Amino acid sequence: MLTQTVEYALRAMACLAFNPDELTPTPTLAEQTKVPASYLAKVLQMLSAGDLITGRRGVGGGYKLTRPAKEISLLDVINVVDPVERIETCPLGITGHDRLCPLHYRLDQAAKAMIDLFGSATLANLIEDAGSSIPLCDQQTATKLRVKK
Amino acid sequence: MLTQTVEYALRAMACLAFNPDELTPTPTLAEQTKVPASYLAKVLQMLSAGDLITGRRGVGGGYKLTRPAKEISLLDVINVVDPVERIETCPLGITGHDRLCPLHYRLDQAAKAMIDLFGSATLANLIEDAGSSIPLCDQQTATKLRVKK
C-alpha cells in the first residue's frame, strides 16, 4: 500500500539517523539501504527539496539530516514523497454532499490511521527501539554503528 | 496514500453495488464515478481479472458484480488492484534479522491497520450507511437509485 518511493525514503532517513553529524556518502547509503543507486539519487533529491536532508550530489557527495532525528517523524518523511491527506470534502465535487459519503469517510479514516501511526514515531524512536534488529543494517554494519555511537 | 487506481476501483465497485442485477453500461459508470473513460476501462479489466465483476468490454458493454455486495469487502477490491500485504520477514533479506526492525515493524502495523479497516467493511455497508450521501452519486442520481431499490 505504501509506495516503493516511501519505503526507500524511510530506509534512507533511518540510515542517516544513525550518523547524524557527518555526510554519509551516497554509495554507502545505497549499499546499506539496498536501494538501486539511480532510484536512491531521486529519493535523496526529494528529501533534500523537502528540507529533511542536506548535502551534495555526485562523486564525493553525501547527505546528513537537517535536524535531530527526534524532531523528524516518519510522517514528515512520507509527506515529502507521497503526502497523506485527510479528505475533508467530497473529492468528486458532488453538489449536495455536505458530508463525506460512506466510501470517502472510510478512505479518510485510513488517512487518519496513517497520520496517527507515522506522526507519533520519530527517526530517533527507530534507533531507540532497535534492540538486536537495527533498521536496514546487517549484523556486521550494526556492530560498527553501535561502536560508533 | 491510497493510489488513484485504488480510489477509482472503489468508486466503480460502489456504483455497481447499487445496481447488482443488471449490466451497468461503461459510459454510465464513467459518468457516475467521474473517472476518465480510458482509465476506467483499465480498472474494470483488473476487477474482471480479479473475478469481482463480470461483463463485456467495448460499445454496448457493461459490467455487474459477480457476487452479492455484502460478500465483497473493500479490501477484496483493494487487493485486486494494489494488494495490501503484512510484512513477515525482513524485506532486505538481512541475515540475522530474525524479527522485524523497528521501521518494518511500523510499516507492518500500517498494513495491519489497513487490512482491519477495509477488511471489515463491505460494499453493502457503503449502501446501508449512505443516508443523504450516497457514494459517488449526485442528488439527482441518488434519488433515481433510491426509487429503484
Summarize this structure briefly.
Two copies of one chain form a homodimer. Chain A has 149 residues and is mainly alpha-helical.
Commentary on this structure:
The structure is a homodimer of 149-residue chains. Chain A is built from seven helices and three strands. Chain A starts with a helix and ends with a helix. The first copy, chain A, has a single domain, classed as Winged helix-like DNA-binding domain superfamily/Winged helix DNA-binding domain (Arc Repressor Mutant, subunit A, Orthogonal Bundle), CATH 1.10.10. In chain A, a hairpin with a 5-residue loop joins β2 and β3. The first copy, chain A, is mainly alpha-helical and 149 residues long. Chains A and B meet through α1, α5 and α6 of A and α1, α5 and α6 of B.
CATH T-level topology of chain A = Arc Repressor Mutant, subunit A
- Which pair of chains forms the biggest interface, and how many residues does each contribute? A-B, 51 and 52 residues
Low-confidence segments of chain A, given as residue ranges, are 137-149
Fraction in beta strands of chain A: 5-15%
Rg calc of chain A? 18 Å
Multimeric organization: homodimer
CATH class of chain A: Mainly Alpha
Give the second-level CATH assignment, the architecture of chain A: Orthogonal Bundle
SS content category of chain A: mainly alpha
What percentage of residues of chain A falls in helices of 4 or more residues? 40-55%
H/E order of the elements of chain A? Answer: HEHHEEHHHH
Question: CATH superfamily assignment of chain A?
Answer: Winged helix-like DNA-binding domain superfamily/Winged helix DNA-binding domain
Number of contiguous helices of chain A: 7
- Write down the domain tally of chain A: 1
* Major sheet attributes of chain A: 3 strands, antiparallel
The strands making up the biggest β-sheet of chain A line up spatially as 1-3-2
Q: What form of chain A results from the Cα inertia axes?
A: elongated
Number of strands of chain A: 3
